[in-house]
Amino acid sequence: MSLQPYWIFSQRWADGGFWHDKIREKDIPTTMHFNNWGFAQDFDYELVPDADYLRRYGKHPGERLVVLTGASVVLSVGATSDENTISAQLQRHLNEKSGGVRYRVINIAMGSWLAYQEFVAISLFAMPLNPDWIVTFDGINDASAPCLFGSGAVNPMEWPKLLYLTYGGTGISSPLLGTLARHSALVRLMSGLRPDEAAGGLRKPADADHLMVDNTETDWQFSVRLDNVTTGVEDKQVSFYLNAERDILSLFNRANIMLTTQPLYDDNPAAPSYRAAVGPTGGADPAAVELELDKYMEAHKNDPCAPRAKLDDARLRGYFMARSATRLAALVDAAQQADRTRRIIYRNAEGALPYEDKLRRKFFVDYVHFTDLGHSRVAEFLAENIIASDRGVPFDFASFARHSQEIAAAAP
Q1: Which of 186, 192, 218, 244: disulfide with 115, CB 3.0–4.6 Å?
Q2: Burial letters for 11-41: b for 16+ Cβ neighbours within 10 Å, e otherwise?
Q3: Percent with pLDDT over 90 in the chain
Q4: What CATH number is associated with residue 67?
């Protein structure tokens, strides 16, 4: 990660390399390229665009410009090439289905971002381009950062580690180095550790009482955490997430907006009726989902967010995804009722892919990121919703879901 003004950090990806497919336990070669800030886009973004920049990259006469934002899923972790990113696939599907209208898609997404970082980035990079559509595709990082990764509500990913380093921490997070530092002057010189470091190798600064070091954490990246955070923090994060989406609606007050909830590979154990409620047939009562979520939070709101080893990742993420989905749908409904001058729509992509595991896994490389097939299918879901909205006709969700089943059945 590279520290950045305003949006906190970007990720500096090398062109080409590998993604890891956790479902099949193999590496996926990729030839993807990234621009000056690390976005999956074929031109460099400018914070202060001049007339030539706007002429080249702003909305052109006769085209409809779509800005797609999100985190690593929209960045397209898992894609094997630039042509297979979700944004490139979205542009392809839009132009194939448009009947002559020309669409162009710009990708403003970054791995590990929360929705509010997305809002800041598109305010800087998208506003000058005068887009016709803003599409958000997110939720998972807002779900994971507060409790699972120990950042607390409203804070970006790895905020505790940034505070820790600011307060004078070493940033070393290896028990082995901690042991070596007690026995080797050379290691102490090279690492900055002191011989009396904690067993985990991390020095907690004296003026950082709100930080803790979780030596039970299996992912050392998140071993520095905020102290005394409980599962109840997810409710505050839902509100913060909705504020970010609301601010997007307000800032881009002349563009059409599609706010979405991204799909996860696994079922939702916090709300077992969630998938039926948000699927193409709407077979479950959304009120039943809310009741399941209420019961889950009432039982777990005081559970500590550390040590991570005792947290139920799937339930925590599932809680946030379901709770934010129901409230985001209500937010969009109210916004469209209040503003009939443009199209404001909400779509939940969970039911766009088959629920049966042997079929669903063909679209995923892990619990949230997609294969090339997944990028294409989700991009087509977004494209069909945009085109249906532009034409003023309903989107046929049931037909789309059936076709996803057929595509998965035919895929190797």
Answers
A1: 244
A2: bebeeeeebebeeeeeebebebebeebbbbb
A3: 79
A4: 3.40.50.1110
